[in-house]
Design a protein that fits this description.
Layout: H1 9-23, H2 36-89, H3 94-98
C-alpha cells in the first residue's frame, strides 16, 4: 500500500497570500524583516523540502514493493521445501519435523462434540 504524499494547507495559504502581496501595485513596506522577497524565498525553500520528502516517500514505496516481492518468493520456497521433504521422507518422519513440519502422529485430533455443545466425559 502506497504511503500518502505530504501536502500543506499552510503552504497553500502562503501561495495565495504571496500572490496577493505581489498584486499590490506599490511594493508594501513592512519593515526590514518582512519583505515579499524573503517571504517568497521561504516559500520556495519549503517547496524544495516537501518535494524532496515526497520523492523519498516514493522511493521507500518502491523498496517496500521489492521487499514484499522477495518475501512472497521466500514464502513459496518455504512451502516447496517443506513439501519436498514430506515427499522424500514422509509426513511422519523426523526429517519433516526438523524442517518445521508437524509430524502426522503428533497432530491433535479434533474432539467430537455432542448435540448439547459439551464434550463427553473421558
Amino acid at each position: 500500500m502506497a504511503r500518502l504524499r505530504r501536502t500543506s494547507a499552510v503552504f497553500e495559504t502562503t501561495r495565495q497570500r504571496l500572490a496577493g502581496l505581489k498584486s499590490i501595485s506599490r511594493t508594501p513596506d513592512f519593515g526590514p524583516t518582512l519583505t515579499v522577497a524573503g517571504y517568497e524565498t521561504k516559500a520556495n525553500e519549503f517547496t524544495t523540502l516537501i518535494n524532496g520528502y515526497n520523492q523519498k516517500v516514493a522511493e521507500l514505496d518502491e523498496v517496500g514493493n521489492a521487499v514484499d516481492s522477495a518475501e512472497a518468493e521466500l514464502k513459496d520456497l518455504n512451502r516447496r521445501f517443506l513439501s519436498a521433504v514430506e515427499a522424500q521422507y514422509g509426513p511422519d518422519s523426523s526429517e519433516y519435523e526438523m524442517v518445521g513440519g508437524t509430524r502426522r502422529s503428533e497432530r491433535k485430533r479434533p474432539s467430537k462434540k455432542t448435540p448439547g455443545g459439551t464434550t463427553p466425559p473421558a
